[in-house]
Amino acid sequence: MNEYSQLGVRQIHEGLRAGNFSARELATSAFDVIDRLDSQVHAFLELTPELAYAQADAVDAAIAAGEPLGILAGVPIAFKDNMNLEGTHTTCASRMLETYVSPFTATCVAKALDAGGICLGKTNMDEFAFGSSTETSFFGVTRNPWDLDRVPGGSSGGSAAAVAAGMATLSLGSDTGGSIRQPGSFTGTVALKPSYGVVSRYGVVAFGSSLDQVGPFARNVEDAAFALNAISGRDPLDCTSQPRDIDYTANLDAGINGMRIGIVPSLLELDGLTSEVKHAFEQSVAKLEGLGAEIVEVELPNAAAAISAYYVLGPCEAFSNLSRFDSVRYGHHAHGKNLEQRYEDSRAQGFGPEAKRRIMLGAWLLASGVYDEYYIPAQKVRTLITADYTKAFEKVDAIVLPTSPRTAFKFGEVSDPASMYLSDIYTISINIAGNGGMNLPVALGEDSGLPIGLQIVGPQFKDENILRVGAALETLVDIPRVAPLEKGGRS
Fold first, then answer.
1. Alpha helices in 248-369 (DSSP H)
2. Which of 118, 122, 183, 315 ranks highest by number of CB atoms within 10 Å?
């Protein structure tokens, strides 16, 4: 195992200040790990060594000059490939954008780099974030570092795998229905989707604009809090972003004695929840109670309808957002005999099967007559789900749920779309309501030996509650935070 691959943000800062290593050494170390492992995992679509070493040298120069360090100074970080970074390809793992080079940088990326982060490159994903396994990428699958025959989850599978394998200290992903938290559960990483509006979406290629949110993958809760400190806050380029002047690391050591934590018994009876995941959940609840939390049963009566609502709202917004890829201004283009033929051929060739499925579904749902029957009721369900969470959080400070109903599945094991969509059964309602949620690795499955995650949900704009609960429970969790891939793993 590389000597730097398990260092956290605090350890990196302390080591840099003490002169134990340089930022350039950290960058070199990260690329060494990538060189050894990524041929097996395929977490990255593009590496940026020239940029990384320039950023590392800037950090080392700042240390030599006695200047203050940024929140993420010297921290190796990777970005999901739907986030623009000037001068790099932003493909969304699609043939449609295979040759697209970003002319600007997304706000979340800019903030992470302004805070001193060292950019390693862009990570693989499901095409346009449509998927739960990273199997729909035009550039090939990403493999789970815990078991190379299994998926890392999706759609941010590359970002999750990069952290789980020890290639990056942090990474950023996007989450529309569970695309940060579910791969976090599959790969044993801390994976945080903040409340909608905490992090700017400007420069992130949109899937569902009312659902998308950016958040970090990390190997511990404190690192996730550091990352959120760096990337959160009001952005005039995103009208949905909110001013958040909060230090998310401030209360991590406060403990949870006296906090009220909700559980939802009805959601533990859903089809598909495996016995090992349910057992790990129950053990985690018992640990929370042992730490002094009061466990309170709450109800989310409309949460079971979240998937139905999501697969109306999501495709409708995806249909609207993907209409811009018309082959005229950028993206894959075919040479049709006329403009209409060019549109048809370019989109037919440029989009993969899942993207086409969601485009066609969105087009149908927004059609005259169908709109009133499906889209309006879905928006009403969204209102009910949001109200359910608001009511529940009048009684509790946080709610815990399973993150995924099962551990990581094998490639090709879940082949039909409906079964794949059920991978996000516990995560989707949080996107619909706009609350924050975080996956915390809590166990290795008794049957599978694979990571299992607990999902911690907080009131809107109370993401510090999530991190506080996670930090407390993390002290009682003893599982590896870097997959055993370099020791042989399971291949």
1. 275-290, 306-322, 339-350, 353-365
2. 183
